User: Which sequence fits this backbone?
C-alpha cells in the first residue's frame, strides 16, 4: 500500500484543480519559496484530520479556501483527495480493509449563502465521515499526529525536548497510554472503595452508639406499649359509659318534658275556672257600686254630677295654664337667641362702618400719592424729551404704554366692582332664599296640621254630647277610685312580704356561711327552673356527691364557700346572670364559666404527698360528678388532699392544702383551722338550707310586684282616659262642632294660601339666583379678560420703561425708576380701596335689613307675652274658685259615705278578694308559660342531646368502638374517665417516648450486620483493584521496555548509518520505575569523545540524532507513506545528502 496521488481543488494557494502524482518509492516536491510545497503536506493532513486547523497553518476552515490572490476571484469551497494503492499482501489481505485496488479518500469544505462552513467526506465517491477515515487509516497506521508526517520544526523539537517528554513519545509508540487510562480507572475505583470503607467504619461506630441508646428506648417503649393498651381499653369503657349516660339523660328529659306539659295544662285549666270566678266578683262589685251611686244622687242632678262638672272645668283650665307656661318658656328661649343675633349683627355693622371709613381714607391717600407720582414722572419725561430725539421717542412710547396701563387698570376696577356687586346680591338672594325655604316649610307643616285637624273634626263629629261624655267620665272616675284602693292593698302585702324575704335571706346566708353569696345562688337557680336563665348547670353542692359517706364532712370543708358557686356553660351566661341579679336586686353569686377556668395539674409536692401513708387522695377524686364540670371541681378544691387525721396533716403540711376527715384544715402557707365540729348547712346533692323558704317568699314578692304593676298600669290608663274625656268636654263647652268646622275652613284656606305664596316665593328666589349666577359668570369672564389686559399693558409699560432707562442718563434713570415705583404703589393702594368700597354698599344694606328683622320679631314676641299674661290671670282666679267649690262637694260626699260604711266595707272586701284572685291567676298564667317555655327548652335540649348522642356514636365508630351490650355492667362516667386520666397521667409522666424504638432497634441490628458484609465485600474489592493496578503497571513496564529495546536497536543502526560510523543509544533515567523518570538520548558522532553529552552537540548533530530516532520509530511502527517537510533545514550539505540517501534507501523497502 502506498500514496498514489494527491488531488487538490482551490486549496489554499492552489487555484482550480491540480493532481500531484506520487510514484512508488521516494518522491521529492521541490520549488522556490511560496510555490506551495508545504501546502501539499497541509493537504495530506487536511484529509487525515488534524486536531486543529492551526496544525495546517490556518485560523479557521475559511482560510483553507483559495482567496483569489490579487487578480482572481475567491473560491466558495475547496477539496482534497488522497488516492491510495491498496494491493493484496502476501497474506491475502489488504492494508486498507476495503476490497479494492485503489481507494480514494476525499474531504471538502464549502461556504453556504450565509457564509457558514459545511464539511463533506467521500470514500470512493460515496458519503462518509471523519470517524470512518480515522478508523480506516488507523488500521493502516497512517495517523495525522504520528511520525509518518514530519514537519518543519518537528526535528528541532524532538532534539530539544526533555527526557520525560521524550519518554512520553516512546509511551505513544509503545501504546502504553491505554494502560495509563486503565490504571487511572483502577486507582479512581480504589480511592472510592477506600472512601466507602472509611464511611462504613464511621457509620458502624455511629450505629453501635445508636444501638446502645435504642436499647433503653426499646425497653421504655415496651413498657409504654402496655400502658397504651390499657389506655385503649379505658377509653373504650369511657366512651361506652358516656354513651350509656347520654341515653339515660335523654330518657330522663323525655319523662320530665311529659310531666311539665301535664302541669302546664293543669294550670291553664285552673286559670279558666278562675276567670269565671273573677267575672262573678266583678258583677257583685258593680251591684254594690250602683247602690252607693244611687244613694249619692245619681249622675245627672246629684252630688256626683256637680263634682264631675267642677273637676272637668278645673282640669280644662289647668291644661290651658300649662300650655301658656310652655309658650312662655319657648318665647323666652327664642328671645334669648334673637337678642344674641341682634347684638352680633350690630357689632358686625359697627365693624363694617369702621372698615368703610378706613377704605375712604386709603383711597384719598392713594389718589394724592398717584397725583404726586404722575407730576414727578411728567417732569422726568420733559427732561428726557429735551435731552435728545431718541429719548423723546422712548418717552412718548412710555407715556402711551402708561396711558394704556391706566385704562386697563380702570377696566379691571370696573370689572371687579361688577363682580363684587353680583357677589353681594347673590349673598343677599341666598339669605332670602333660605328664609323663603324656611317659610315654605313652616307653611307646609301648618297646612299638614290643618288637614290633620280637619280629619279629627270629621272623626269626632258623629253624636257627641255632654251627657254621654259625663257618663264616660263618671265611669272612669269610679274605676280610678277602685284601682286606688286595690293599689293600696297590694302595696301593703308587698311591703310585708319583702320584710319576710329579707329576714329569710339573712338567715340563709348566716346558715350557709357563704359570705352573702347563697341568696344570689338560690335566686339564679330559681330563675333557671322558671326558664328565665339558660346555660345554668347548677351549684357545686348540687352537682357533686361523695363516693364514701364518711368523707362528706371533709369534702364539704375542703370546698367551703365554693359549695354555693354556680357552674355555667360559658362567660356569656355568667354575664347575663350577673346582669339579671343586678336588675332584680337578688343578691350576689360566684359563677364558674367552664370555658374560661384554667385547668392546672397537681403540683409535684402534692403528687408526692398523695402517695404517702394516711393520705386518702385528692379531694376531686373522692367525688362523683359529671365529667364536663371537672375543671370547675378542680378549681374550687385547689388540689386539696384529704388525710385521715390531724397528725398526718401535720407530718405533711407546707406547700399543699390538707383537710382531715373531721374537718380540720392545714393551708398551703402553714395556717391551721379547726376546733369544734360544725354542722354543715349546705349538703351535697341538694339545695342550700333555707333556700326553699327564700324561693317561696321571692315568688310571693314577685307575684305582688306584678300585681302592683298591673294595678298601677290600669290606674295610669284610667287617668289618661279621664284626661281625654275632659278634653272632649272642654271642646264641647267652648265651641260647637259647626263653629269649629267653619273656623277650620277659614284657617285651612289661609294655610293653603300661605303655602302657595311661600312656594312661589321660593321659586322666584331660585330663578333670580340662577339668573344672577349666569350674569356673575359673564362678569367673571370679563374680569379675567381685564386682568389679562392689565398684565399685557403692565408688561408693555415695563419694557418701555426699561428701554427708556437704558437710553437715559444715570441721574434721570434713577429719578424715572423712583417715580415708577411710587406710581405703582399708589395705583395698587387705589385699586384695593376702590374694590373695597365697591363691595361694601350691598353688604351694609344686608346688615341693616337683618337688624330691622330681629327688632320687629322681638317686639312681636313681647306684645304676645303681655296679652297672654292678662288671660292667665283670669284663668287662675277661675281655677281657685272652682277648687274651693270642689272641696265643699267632696266633704259632703265623704260625710255620706261614712253613713253607709257597711256597703263600702263589703265593696272593699270584694275588691281585695278580686285583686288577690287576679294576682293568683296571673301567677298561674306565668307559671304555665314558664313550664311551656321549659318544655320548649327541654325539647331543644333533647334535639341537641340527639345530636350529641349521634356525634358520640360517630366518634365511637371512628375509633372502632361499639355500644356496650345489654346486661354489661359499666363503670360510672366519672370512674371511667378518672381511670383514663390516671393512665394518661402515667403515660404523660414518661414524657415523649420513641414508640418506633422497637422497630428502629431491629433495623439498627440488621443494618450493622449488613455493614459487616459490605465491609468484607469492599475489602475484597480493594485487594482486587490493587492487584489489577499492580498487574497493569507490570504489563505497561514490560511493554515499554520491550519497545525501547527494539527502538534502541533501530536507533543504533540508524544513527551509525547517518553519522558514518558514530554511535548512539537510548536509555531510561530510572530503569526500576521508568514512568517516574525520562528517556535520555546519547549520541557520539564519528571522531568525538565518548564523554560528550547531547547538550554539547552542535545543532546539526542534535538534528541528526533526532532524525535517527524518527527513523528508528518508523522502523518499529511502519506506515504506508512518510512525508518529510524540509527536515534538513539545520544540516550542512554533507549531512543533508546522507539524509537524502537514507530516505532513498528506505523507500526501496
Assistant:
Amino acid at each position: 500500500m502506498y500514496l498514489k496521488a494527491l488531488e487538490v481543488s482551490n486549496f489554499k494557494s492552489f487555484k482550480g484543480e491540480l493532481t500531484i502524482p506520487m510514484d512508488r518509492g521516494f518522491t521529492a516536491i521541490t520549488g522556490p519559496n511560496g510555490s506551495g510545497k508545504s501546502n501539499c503536506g497541509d493537504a495530506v493532513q487536511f484529509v487525515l484530520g488534524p486536531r486543529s486547523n492551526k496544525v495546517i497553518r490556518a485560523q479557521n476552515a475559511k482560510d483553507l479556501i483559495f482567496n483569489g490572490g490579487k487578480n482572481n476571484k475567491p473560491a466558495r469551497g475547496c477539496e482534497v483527495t488522497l488516492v491510495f494503492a491498496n494491493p493484496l499482501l502476501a497474506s491475502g489481505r489488504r492494508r486498507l480493509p476495503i476490497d479494492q485496488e485503489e481507494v480514494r479518500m476525499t474531504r471538502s469544505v464549502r461556504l453556504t449563502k450565509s457564509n457558514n462552513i459545511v464539511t463533506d467526506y467521500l470514500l470512493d465517491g460515496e458519503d462518509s465521515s471523519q470517524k470512518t477515515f480515522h478508523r480506516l487509516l488507523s488500521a493502516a497506521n497512517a495517523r495525522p499526529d504520528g511520525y509518518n508526517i514530519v514537519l518543519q520544526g518537528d526535528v528541532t523539537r524532538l532534539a530539544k525536548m526533555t527526557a520525560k517528554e521524550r519518554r512520553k513519545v516512546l509511551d505513544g509508540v509503545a501504546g502504553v497510554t491505554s494502560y495509563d487510562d486503565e490504571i487511572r480507572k483502577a486507582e479512581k475505583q480504589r480511592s472510592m472503595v477506600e472512601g466507602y470503607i472509611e464511611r462504613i467504619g464511621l457509620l458502624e461506630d455511629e450505629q453501635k452508639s445508636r444501638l446502645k441508646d435504642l436499647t433503653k428506648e426499646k425497653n421504655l417503649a415496651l413498657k409504654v406499649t402496655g400502658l397504651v393498651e390499657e389506655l385503649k381499653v379505658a377509653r373504650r369503657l369511657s366512651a361506652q359509659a358516656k354513651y350509656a349516660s347520654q341515653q339515660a339523660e335523654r330518657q330522663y328529659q323525655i319523662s320530665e318534658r311529659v310531666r311539665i306539659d301535664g302541669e302546664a295544662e293543669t294550670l291553664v285549666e285552673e286559670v279558666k275556672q278562675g276567670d269565671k270566678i273573677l267575672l262573678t266578683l266583678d258583677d257583685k262589685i258593680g251591684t254594690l257600686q250602683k247602690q252607693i251611686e244611687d244613694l249619692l244622687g245619681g249622675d245627672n242632678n246629684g252630688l256626683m254630677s256637680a263634682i264631675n262638672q267642677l273637676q272637668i272645668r278645673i282640669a280644662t283650665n289647668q291644661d290651658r295654664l300649662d300650655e301658656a307656661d310652655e309658650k312662655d318658656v319657648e318665647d323666652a328661649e327664642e328671645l334669648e337667641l334673637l337678642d344674641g343675633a341682634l347684638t352680633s349683627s350690630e357689632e358686625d355693622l359697627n365693624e363694617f362702618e369702621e372698615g368703610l371709613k378706613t377704605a375712604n381714607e386709603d383711597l384719598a391717600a392713594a389718589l394724592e400719592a398717584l397725583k404726586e407720582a404722575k407730576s414727578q414722572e411728567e417732569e422726568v419725561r420733559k427732561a428726557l424729551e429735551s435731552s435728545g430725539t431718541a429719548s423723546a421717542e422712548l418717552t412718548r412710547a412710555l407715556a402711551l404704554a402708561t396711558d394704556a396701563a391706566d385704562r386697563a387698570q380702570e377696566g379691571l376696577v370696573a370689572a371687579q366692582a361688577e363682580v363684587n356687586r353680583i357677589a353681594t346680591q347673590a349673598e343677599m338672594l341666598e339669605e332670602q332664599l333660605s328664609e323663603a325655604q324656611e317659610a315654605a316649610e313652616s307653611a307646609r307643616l301648618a297646612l299638614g296640621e290643618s288637614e290633620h285637624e280637619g280629619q279629627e273634626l270629621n272623626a269626632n263629629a258623629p253624636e257627641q254630647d255632654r251627657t254621654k261624655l259625663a257618663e264616660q267620665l263618671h265611669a272612669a272616675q269610679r274605676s280610678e277610685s277602685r284601682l286606688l284602693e286595690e293599689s293600696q292593698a297590694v302595696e301593703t302585702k308587698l311591703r310585708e312580704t319583702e320584710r319576710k324575704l329579707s329576714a329569710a335571706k339573712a338567715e340563709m346566708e348566716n346558715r350557709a356561711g357563704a359570705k352573702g353569696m347563697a341568696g344570689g345562688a338560690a335566686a339564679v337557680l330559681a330563675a333557671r327552673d322558671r326558664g328565665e336563665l339558660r346555660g345554668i348547670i347548677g351549684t357545686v353542692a348540687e352537682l357533686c356527691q361523695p363516693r364514701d359517706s364518711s368523707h362528706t364532712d371533709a369534702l364539704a370543708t375542703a370546698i367551703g364557700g365554693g359549695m354555693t358557686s354556680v357552674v355555667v356553660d360559658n362567660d356569656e351566661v355568667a354575664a347575663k346572670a350577673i346582669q339579671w341579679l343586678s336588675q332584680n336586686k337578688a343578691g350576689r353569686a360566684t359563677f364558674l364559666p367552664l370555658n374560661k377556668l384554667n385547668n392546672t395539674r397537681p403540683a409535684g409536692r402534692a403528687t408526692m404527698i398523695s402517695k404517702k401513708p394516711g393520705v386518702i387522695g385528692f379531694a376531686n377524686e373522692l367525688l362523683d360528678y359529671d365529667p364536663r364540670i371537672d375543671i370547675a371541681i378542680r378549681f374550687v378544691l385547689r388540689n386539696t388532699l384529704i388525710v385521715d387525721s390531724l397528725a398526718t396533716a401535720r407530718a405533711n403540711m407546707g406547700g399543699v392544702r390538707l383537710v382531715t376527715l373531721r374537718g380540720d384544715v392545714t393551708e398551703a402557707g402553714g395556717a391551721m383551722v379547726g376546733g369544734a365540729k360544725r354542722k354543715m348547712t349546705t349538703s351535697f346533692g341538694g339545695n342550700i338550707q333555707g333556700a326553699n323558704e327564700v324561693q317561696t317568699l321571692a315568688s310571693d314578692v314577685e307575684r305582688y310586684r306584678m300585681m302592683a304593676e298591673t294595678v298601677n298600669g290600669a290606674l295610669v290608663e284610667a287617668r289618661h282616659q279621664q284626661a281625654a274625656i275632659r278634653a272632649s268636654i272642654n271642646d264641647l263647652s267652648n265651641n260647637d262642632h259647626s263653629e269649629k268646622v267653619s273656623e277650620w275652613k277659614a284657617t285651612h284656606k289661609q294655610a293653603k294660601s300661605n303655602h302657595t305664596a311661600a312656594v312661589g316665593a321660593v321659586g322666584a328666589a331660585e330663578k333670580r339666583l340662577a339668573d344672577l349666577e349666569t350674569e356673575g359668570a359673564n362678569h367673571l369672564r370679563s374680569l379675567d379678560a381685564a386682568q389679562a389686559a392689565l398684565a399685557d399693558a403692565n408688561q408693555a409699560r415695563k419694557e418701555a420703561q426699561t428701554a427708556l432707562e437704558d437710553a437715559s442718563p444715570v441721574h434721570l434713570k434713577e429719578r424715572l425708576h423712583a417715580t415708577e415705583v411710587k406710581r405703582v404703589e399708589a395705583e395698587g393702594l387705589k385699586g384695593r380701596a376702590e374694590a373695597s368700597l365697591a363691595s361694601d354698599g350691598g353688604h351694609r344694606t344686608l346688615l341693616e335689613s337683618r337688624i330691622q328683622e330681629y327688632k320687629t320679631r322681638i317686639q312681636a314676641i313681647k306684645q304676645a307675652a303681655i296679652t297672654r299674661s292678662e288671660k292667665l290671670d283670669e284663668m287662675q282666679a277661675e281655677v281657685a274658685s272652682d277648687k274651693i267649690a270642689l272641696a265643699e262637694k267632696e266633704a259632703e260626699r265623704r260625710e255620706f259615705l261614712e253613713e253607709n260604711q257597711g256597703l263600702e266595707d263589703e265593696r272593699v272586701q270584694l275588691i281585695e278578694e278580686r285583686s288577690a284572685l287576679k294576682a293568683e291567676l296571673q301567677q298561674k298564667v306565668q307559671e304555665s308559660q314558664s313550664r311551656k317555655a321549659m318544655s320548649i327548652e327541654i325539647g331543644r335540649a333533647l334535639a341537641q342531646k340527639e345530636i350529641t348522642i349521634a356525634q358520640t356514636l360517630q366518634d365511637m365508630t371512628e375509633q372502632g368502638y361499639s355500644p356496650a351490650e345489654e346486661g354489661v355492667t359499666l363503670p360510672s362516667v366519672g370512674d371511667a374517665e378518672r381511670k383514663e386520666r390516671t393512665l394518661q397521667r402515667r403515660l404523660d409522666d414518661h414524657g415523649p417516648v420513641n414508640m418506633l424504638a422497637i422497630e428502629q432497634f431491629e433495623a439498627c441490628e440488621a443494618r450493622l450486620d449488613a455493614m459487616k458484609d459490605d465491609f468484607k465485600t469492599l475489602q475484597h474489592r480493594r485487594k482486587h483493584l490493587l492487584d489489577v493496578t499492580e498487574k497493569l503497571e507490570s504489563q505497561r513496564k514490560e511493554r515499554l521496555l520491550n519497545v525501547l529495546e527494539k527502538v534502541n536497536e533501530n536507533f543504533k543502526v540508524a544513527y551509525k548509518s547517518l553519522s558514518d560510523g558514530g554511535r548512539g543509544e537510548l536509555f531510561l533515567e530510572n530503569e526500576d520505575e521508568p514512568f517516574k523518570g525520562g528517556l535520555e538520548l546519547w549520541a557520539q558522532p564519528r571522531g568525538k569523545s565518548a564523554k560528550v553529552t547531547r547538550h554539547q552537540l552542535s545543532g546539526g548533530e542534535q538534528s541528526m540524532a533526532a532524525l535517527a530516532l524518527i527513523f528508528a520509530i518508523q522502523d518499529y511502527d511502519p506506515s504506508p507513506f512518510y512525508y518529510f517537510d524540509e527536515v534538513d533545514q539545520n544540516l550542512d550539505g554533507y549531512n543533508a545528502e546522507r539524509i537524502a540517501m537514507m530516505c532513498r534507501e528506505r523507500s526501496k523497502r
Remarks:
- Confidence is low (pLDDT under 50) at residues 512-517.
